[in-house]
Each structure stands twice: as C-alpha cells, then as structure tokens.
Amino acid sequence: METQSIVTQVQLYQFEELAPDYQKIVTLAKEQTGKSYSPYSHFAVGAAVLMENGEIFAGSNQENAAYPSGLCAERTTMFYANAQRPDVPIKAIAIAAYTNDDYLEDPVAPCGACRQALLENESRFGQPLQVLLYGKKGIYFVESIKDLLPLCFTKESMQ
Ligand code: THU
What we know:
Elements: E1 11-13, H1 20-32, E2 44-51, E3 56-60, H2 73-84, E4 90-99, E5 102-103, H3 112-125, E6 130-135, E7 138-142
Parallel strand pairs: 4-6
Antiparallel strand pairs: 1-7, 2-3, 2-4, 4-5, 6-7
Bound molecules: tetrahydrodeoxyuridine.
Residues 38, 41, 43, 45, 61, 63, 70, 72-74, 110-111, 114 line the site of tetrahydrodeoxyuridine.
C-alpha cells in the first residue's frame, strides 16, 4: 500500500489584481445575483462566462417549487452560452453568491453537479476552463475545473 496525495493549487486574488476581463466577469456574476430566482433558498447565485472570442454571457440560479427542477447559476449560464455559441470554448467562469443581505465572506463553492457539467466543457473543447470564485475576502482562481474535481470522470475515462 502507498499513500498518494492529490494537490490542488488555488490562487487567492484581490479584485484589483485581476486582469480587466476577469474583473468584468466577477462584477457581472455579483450583479447577476440580483436577477436570481431563489424564493425557496434565498441563496442568490450569479455567474458569468468569458468566451474564447471575448464575448460574455451571464445568468443566475433558477428555482422551482418542485425543488430538483431548478438549476444552479453555473449550469444555467454555461448551457445558455453553449446554446448560443456551440463552437466557441468557454475560457473562464466567475461565480458569486448573495444571502442574508450580503455576499459570502468565503469564496462560493460550486456544487458537484456543476463541477461535473463544467468539466464536460473542458473535454468538449479540449482546453482548460478557468474558475473564479468570489468571496468578500478575495477571489479564488483555479486554472482548470479539473482542479476542483480530482479523480474526475470524463469521456476519456471510458476509452
Ligand atoms: N446553487 C447554485 O446556483 N450554484 C451552486 O454551485 C450551489 C447552489 C443554487 C441552487 C439553489 O437554487 C440554491 O443555490 C441553494 O442550493
């Protein structure tokens, strides 16, 4: 038996340290929390994606009285971008969450299903999808969604 370690590197940025395009999607993700439909959880999540061609799409979580019928902000936004631009890779996604009259102190953690769905974009387009997680204390930046989903399952896993 041997013990192996899987190491994830996360960079903590202050907003001013981010490049302008990344500042733009973080700001949009924060703004989008105001457009969330979350009457059940009161947990408003916003997301914005930066496409490889420079375009930006944004969205928010959409809840439903039948709870599982709702959808997280990340997938709402990513699927919208994919539907509009099926041939353009998503370069980066920014996520923010607002609840109890404030943004979260710690960077928001995307759910497992969203991590898996975002990962599909990496294997679909063959390039990393960067992730920016907003919190009041700073923004976590990861180079690839794979970093948030170690030992992941993709189409390559079936070959
Ligand atoms: N939610 C997101 O939009 N993204 C996540 O990554 C975590 C959870 C939403 C789903 C639901 O509308 C609310 O937050 C509470 O779970």
